[in-house]
Specification:
about 325 residues, alpha/beta, Rossmann fold, Ubiquitin-like (UB roll), 9 helices, about 20% strand, Developmentally-regulated GTP-binding protein 2, GTP-binding_2, nucleotide-binding
Length: about 325
């Protein structure tokens, strides 16, 4: 029996198993096996032979956005974007999505719920967790001493016995485990596997001109969702605003002594960037020659304010760097 058949069999077993106190250990084991087989499916083949054609997108620019969707949902009409459509190359395309900063899921508003569920399941199966944060669980395998299990909060979904069964499925018999929050068995498995990617996702419903106002309102009120119409150019500006927020990017403008700020060429940084980060972006040796900086903008108490390398910049600040 191949890996795909084993995965299908386990998924069928999970779907027909009623979830209750008596079956929680059985379900936990099934989920651990499922995660293990899915990880094997993503591993490259070790068999001898000619190497396959690689597939990646060269890293460039200030951020990477993965546009994922079924054919004919409006991926290619996003203005100004150089896009890649990977028809029939699912695993390779998903591998590129794992390196993105944000996932934009393009959905057809006329069948958005069905498409969304299928794509979420596909991304979940390859270790991409959308709009979630990494579980607050400390896990460290050891060479001996058995299992050390502790929790700082009451656990309602995991027990020491279930944790032990899951670890045994991965051939781990000695480890330290500390739950700092009430997590599910699936989240604990994610911590064990360790190759999960947690990233923000924006659900974009296109073709809203083909559905009722009530349905548009329902979709627009869903978390992390934007409704647009590429054909009628509706709400595209708002989509760009939301995407900018999800990427957590800020614009920093530079100024030379005695000259006006250059508002035509901004430095794009991540939110929370310091003056030192700006120096490294301009030139790798600038931080070592740094004396002080003058900053105008919302990050200062008055303008201009003399600051050091640790000063945190904000959106649309202006900076003038003085060297030694």
């Amino acid at each position: 029996m191949g890996i795909l058949e084993k995965i299908a069999e386990i998924e069928k077993e999970i779907s027909r198993t009623q979830k209750n106190k008596a079956t929680e250990y059985h379900l936990g084991l099934l989920k651990a096996k499922l995660a293990k087989y899915r990880a094997q499916l993503l591993e490259p083949s070790k068999s001898a032979g000619a190497k396959g054609e690689g597939f990646d997108v060269m890293k460039s620019g200030d951020a990477r956005v993965a546009l994922i969707g079924f054919p004919s949902v409006g991926k290619v009409c996003q203005h100004g974007g150089r896009l890649l459509i990977g028809k029939g190359r699912g695993r390779q395309v998903i591998a590129v999505a794992r390196t993105a900063d944000v996932v934009v899921m393009m959905l057809d508003a006329t069948k958005g719920d069905v498409q969304r569920a299928l794509l979420e399941k596909e991304l979940e199966s390859v270790g991409i967790r959308l709009n979630r944060i990494k579980p607050n669980i400390y896990f460290k395998p050891k060479k001996g001493g058995g299992l050390s299990f502790n929790s700082t909060v009451p656990l309602t979904q995991c027990s020491e016995k279930l944790v032990q069964l899951i670890l045994h499925e991965y051939k781990i018999f000695n480890a330290e485990v500390l739950f700092r929050e009430d997590c599910t068995p699936d989240e604990f498995i994610d911590v064990i596997v360790g190759n999960r990617v947690y990233m923000p996702c924006l659900y974009v419903y296109n073709k809203v001109d083909q559905i009722s106002i009530e349905e548009v309102d329902r979709l627009a009120r869903r978390p992390h969702s934007v409704v647009i119409s590429c054909g009628m150019k509706l709400n595209l500006d708002y989509l760009l605003e939301r995407l900018w927020e999800y990427l957590a990017l800020i614009c920093i403008y530079t100024k030379k002594r005695g000259e006006r700020p250059d508002f035509n060429d901004a430095i794009i940084m991540r939110r929370g960037a310091s003056v030192e980060h700006v120096c490294h972006r301009i030139h790798r040796t600038l931080a070592s020659q740094f004396k002080y900086a003058l900053v105008w903008g919302t990050s200062t108490k008055y303008s201009p304010q003399r600051v050091g390398l640790t000063h945190i910049m904000e959106h649309e600040d202006v900076i003038q760097i003085v060297k030694k």
